[in-house]
Amino acid sequence: MTKKICIIGGGASGLTGIKACLEQGLTPVCYEWTKKIGGLWRYREEDVEGLGSVMRSTIINSSKEVSAFSDFPPPREYPNYMHNSKMIRYIEMYAKNYDLARHIHFEHEVKKVEQAPDYDITGRWVVTVQKVGCEEPTQDVFDGVMVCAGHHVFPIIPKFQGQEKFKGRIIHTHSYKKPNGYDDKKVLVIGVGNSGGDVAVELSSIASQVYLSTRRGAWIIHRVGPKGRPFDLWLMKRFFNIFFNHAPYPIVCYVAEREINNRFDHELYRLKPEHHIFGQHPMVNDALPNRILSGTVQVRGDVKEFTAKGVIFEGENEEVAVDEVVLATGYKITFPFLSTDIVWVEDNKVELYKFAIPPKLKHKTLIVIGLGQPVGPLMPISELQSRVFALHMSGKIQLPSEEEMMEDIRKKDKEMRKRYFGGPRHTIQMDWINFMDELAELAGVKPDLASMFFNDPILFYFCFFGPCLPYQYRLKGPNAWPQARDA
């Protein structure tokens, strides 16, 4: 009998889940809370609690070829860095090409996922779903569950001393859509992640002044690389990855920091952190240095306290007048429909093998897709995680034992604690090529570079010295794509 798989979420990760199930002869049933596919990448004017959405101006941080689905390249005429309107169109084309939407139940919210009474024997799950507008929920039983609900959903809202005195508006970037209403205002943006940088740059063109508050500083990388080509196409190469993996860490950091500082001196711009460049998830922003140089964005330290009409920064005594505050303070990882017995989460730390599979489940029939903060694009990781799970559920591959999974989790946690400063945004970090290769090895689709060197040296050259594109993971193994070599 065909196994039935529940897929929670109809975004990019959910779509790769549907396709992976179909490739392995499984029956996918996808529940999507909204009326359309796309998840986070579909821009929405309204701010809905529990529903992530990009800002109107959002552009992807990874170039299109690096971010591509492994067997469906983006249109040639699309720009290297796609605006969210292009990104959602690409996702829609992918869904249409593989006829994925017919497996989606739109306007269905998953309320609860729990082990079936016979779970110990069958590994099955009971999923409770409520259709929008209906009072009574329904239940169904599934052989497996793929959680593709995303993690940019529930914002972290910090509390500051004296915040209750402040007369202006305070919102999180989760609620920020476009710059309407900020004309001629003094705006404080707290946090220097990608969203904080994007908001500061956008508002600096209409606000009277933007202050960018940072506790630790940030290393900023840019989209435009050598000779005007995408920076990630230059950086994300297996050749460079070997250097990164095997050269002494201080040397790797020195080389990278020198390259980054050649564009602008981070210390001069008051952005240089105490930690090395690979000790923090970098910010991707091409325009911020120009805005700092022009004075429309001023970099300040952490907020010590709020006043009625502004803030006082750490190390300063004078009040700085502020009308509006935007919190770019990240998101908390949580799954309201899952108990912590199934997926353990504490202070944004998770206990998941490959950031996906709960290791202590008796039956490995549930997976979390797309939970990660890679130095690179997330979409290809989601796709490969989906392929691994579908191959496992169809009995074509075997996953490691619980002991092996826990050892891998401990190893990764040790590596992260050694390299990154502590904080809620550095609990799910992953290096893109290394992590993709680990998943590919499980799925049996890792490129065989040694064989390639002797049998197809031209392809070897492009795979080793060229950018590591997702198409490499369709060259061999289950569901290889005949056009992968040409792509």
Automatic annotation (TrEMBL):
EC numbers for this chain: 1.14.13.148, 1.14.13.8, 1.6.3.1
Recorded catalytic reaction(s): these are: hexan-3-one + NADPH + O2 + H(+) = propyl propanoate + NADP(+) + H2O; octan-3-one + NADPH + O2 + H(+) = ethyl hexanoate + NADP(+) + H2O; trimethylamine + NADPH + O2 = trimethylamine N-oxide + NADP(+) + H2O; NADPH + O2 + H(+) = H2O2 + NADP(+)
Q: What class of enzyme is it?
A: oxidoreductase
Q: Which cofactor does it need?
A: FAD
Q: Which GO terms describe its cellular component?
A: endoplasmic reticulum membrane
Mention one GO biological process in which this protein takes part, according to its record.
lipid metabolic process
Source domain of life is: Eukaryota
Primary location class: endoplasmic reticulum
**Which GO molecular-function terms appear in the entry?**
flavin adenine dinucleotide binding; N,N-dimethylaniline monooxygenase activity; NAD(P)H oxidase H2O2-forming activity; NADP binding; trimethylamine monooxygenase activity
Record-linked InterPro entries:
FAD/NAD-bd_sf, Flavin_mOase, Flavin_mOase-like, Flavin_mOase_5, FMO-like
UniProt-annotated location(s):
Endoplasmic reticulum membrane; Microsome membrane
Membrane topology per record: Single-pass membrane protein
Say if the entry is tagged with keyword Cell wall biogenesis/degradation: no
Q: Does the keyword Translocase apply?
A: no
Which family does the entry's similarity section mention?
Answer: Belongs to the FMO family.
Q: Tell me, in a sentence or two, what this protein's role is.
A: Acts as a Baeyer-Villiger monooxygenase on a broad range of substrates. Catalyzes the insertion of an oxygen atom into a carbon-carbon bond adjacent to a carbonyl, which converts ketones to esters. Active on diverse carbonyl compounds, whereas soft nucleophiles are mostly non- or poorly reactive. In contrast with other forms of FMO it is non- or poorly active on 'classical' substrates such as drugs, pesticides, and dietary components containing soft nucleophilic heteroatoms. Able to oxidize drug molecules bearing a carbonyl group on an aliphatic chain, such as nabumetone and pentoxifylline.
Name-wise, this protein is: Flavin-containing monooxygenase 1
Q: Which organism is it from?
A: Stegodyphus mimosarum
